[in-house]
Amino acid sequence: MQPSTVAVFCIAALALLLFLSGLYVSATRARFRILCAGADDPAHALTKAVRAHGNTAEYAAMLALLIYLLGQRSSAEWVSWVMVGVTASRYLLVMGVLASATLARPNPFRAVAALGTYVGGTVLALALLFAAA
Predict the structure, then answer these.
(1) Do the Cβ atoms of 91 and 15 come closer than 8 Å?
(2) 1: confidence class by pLDDT, cuts 50, 70, 90
(3) CA distance linking residue 6 with residue 95, whole number of Å
(4) Are 46 and 29 a contacting pair, CB within 8 Å?
(5) What per-residue confidence (pLDDT) applies to 92?
């Protein structure tokens, strides 16, 4: 059975976010001539780039796996909407991190994106669990 088109789109979008944010970290390192470690300043562009990529790496793989497995099943339409929502949340988080003046202060984009990731990921995990039962 092939995964749904929505699932494939979301998985590809998460993969693009991961690899493009990694490329952005490398470009930012080159721009500031920092090859190892990073800046400790929460307002520094490299700190924000590393955090955006790291946070993406922390969630993208598990979300992609959940999306793939649910996409293999004939899931309800609401599951597809959750897949899209959680993928959009990951993009919103990266935008919020990169666009914030500093990571030391809360940012509404980051807060909404984090909530979307936590809720969406939990819903996908539960949908998979109940689909397996």
Answers:
(1) no
(2) low
(3) 22
(4) yes
(5) 98
Report the distance separating Cα 90 and Cα 10, nearest Å: 11
Report the chain's mean pLDDT, rounded to a whole number.
Answer: 94
Q: Give long-range contacts, CB 8 A cutoff, 24+ apart: 98-106.
A: 98/48, 98/49, 98/52, 100/48, 101/43, 102/42, 102/43, 103/42, 103/43, 103/47, 103/48, 103/51, 104/42, 104/43
Amino acid letter for position 15: A
Distance CA 97, CA 48 (A): 6
Predicted TM-score of the model (pTM) = 0.94
What is the spatial distance between Cα 119 and Cα 108, in angstroms, rounded to a whole number?
A: 16
